[in-house]
Amino acid sequence: MKVISKQVPSAELDTSQGLTLRLLSEDRPFIRKFILSMVTNIPFKNAYPDHFSLDRVNKTFLLATVSFNEFSPELHRYFERILYELELGVCSPYHAARILEMKVLSMDEKRGLIQDKILGMIRRFPKSFDYDLFSEMQQFFLSFSDQYFRIRSVREIAQTLMALYLARKQICLKSEKAPKQRYVEVKIMHRRLNLPLGQKEALEVVIGMNMLRENELFKKGHLLKAIQNIIPEAELVVGSDYLDKEGEKPLHLITLEIEKAGGFEREEIVDLKRWLSRAIKGKVEHLQRTLFMPRNEEEILKYVVTLGQELRFARDLPQVILSFEKQTETNLVFTVILARLLLPKMPPLEDVLLASPLRPKIDRIKQLGMLRKKYPKEAAVFKVQLPLKEFLREDHSIDLYRARQSILHKLHAIFGEIRDYNGGMISKQNEVFKALEKDLDSIGKRHHHLLENFFHSLFPLEKRSLLDSKILKNLFLLLLEKIQTQQDFVTKEEGGHCYIVADSHALEKFQELSTPLITLDLEYDERIYKGFVSK
Hints:
By secondary structure, the chain is an alpha+beta fold. It is built from 17 helices and 21 strands. The radius of gyration is 35 Å and the shape is elongated.
């Protein structure tokens, strides 16, 4: 019995006459089905064996023989690749099931195994799972193509379904107790995708979040942006996203997978688990109804006259008033009033505007008289459209201030230096904000959205443009500390100034302090933060 003297399990390929595979293993109940499935489901056309047999040897061993009369290089390479899998599978029912699952199971069989896995979890943990999980499962099955199931294991898909179910259950329970409060459930799981060219590591992110308003919007793009705030290099695994639309309760339920070149570091995964729920809250988009507000022509004429009166000397800069007019689905529309002196050798205002990259829609060109009976004053009223997408903030609100600055930069490129008639304080505030960003360096970049909200939540308004950026830096750093702590308030003294940031209900303790230089009134992450700086 030469064959029994070999190590068990043992597999060999014989190419002396055609191609023959011999596999020796212990005879176990699951072995026959495993071997039969592996050697008969060959991924080549008309690749059927000419001989197949399963013979018992010495009552305890099983010898499988698969023969092809003609040698084929493709078949030879295929069997060389699966020799290790055959030996591994005949040793363990677990490995045999996993190998069959990834290689030869039909999609119906795989879905059946997922259903069996779910049923087992319902019976094992009846307090956590109920039979309505099957409804979730059917909706999930209908949402994905066979390719999704082909490259993922039964265990991982079942985990995803259970994570979605538990996220929904937890959010519903919490929101019933406090319906006006935002709740977020996050589950992050490692995934191994079995692609044709090899395995790929990924992370699956499952989130559940209750809706507080009817006009809320939160989809895979919003979730991906929240993830990229924490891990900028993270990319969506195409075809991995699922958005639940059938739930009875008003909530957002999403799962998707992300990948990163070189894989994810342990610290990145820790940061994702720690910060994602907070980042998600800042990405909820609120749909707004469009406004109907006809333009006030009397106000336009008044501004035209006012700008003309500002032109008193030949060296005066062109005067500009910018005002927001309306928003469409794709564009922002601003009304621009510009007045200037027409000096010798200057082309007319209309010619300059029509040749500019602004592509304005000119309403009117008006002569405003002469300066010293020598230089004509001319004014133009025109509309400028900007693509809305370029000015969306992280929370999908529209940054009108940045859109306004964009038009000013373009006007500066056309006319040279200009005077922003109604933007003096805005310009000064911009200088202070830029200085604050510079002082905060990497911290400011990491928390840019929060920093913008912080700056525009400081009162009184005029103090924003007067205070030293170092004072604002200290207050912002204290705000970050308060956000990350459970204390009612945090304080700091530095450079003769007292800084306080507190929850709104805790600020009463500091009423007796001197009149503050500046106060903070910020809503962030569904909470209200109050603060001030005093001497």
